[in-house]
Amino acid sequence: MGGRVALEVHRLAPHRVARIALLNTGYLPRPVGEPGEEEARKRRELVALATTQGMRAMLRQWLPPMIDSRRINDTILVNAIIKMMSRKTPDIFAAQVRALLARPDASETLEQIRCPALLLTGREDGWSTPEQHRAMFEKMAAAKIAGSQIVIVPDCGHMSMMEQPAEVSAALRAWLYTC
Question: Total structural domains in the chain?
Answer without folding.
Answer: 2
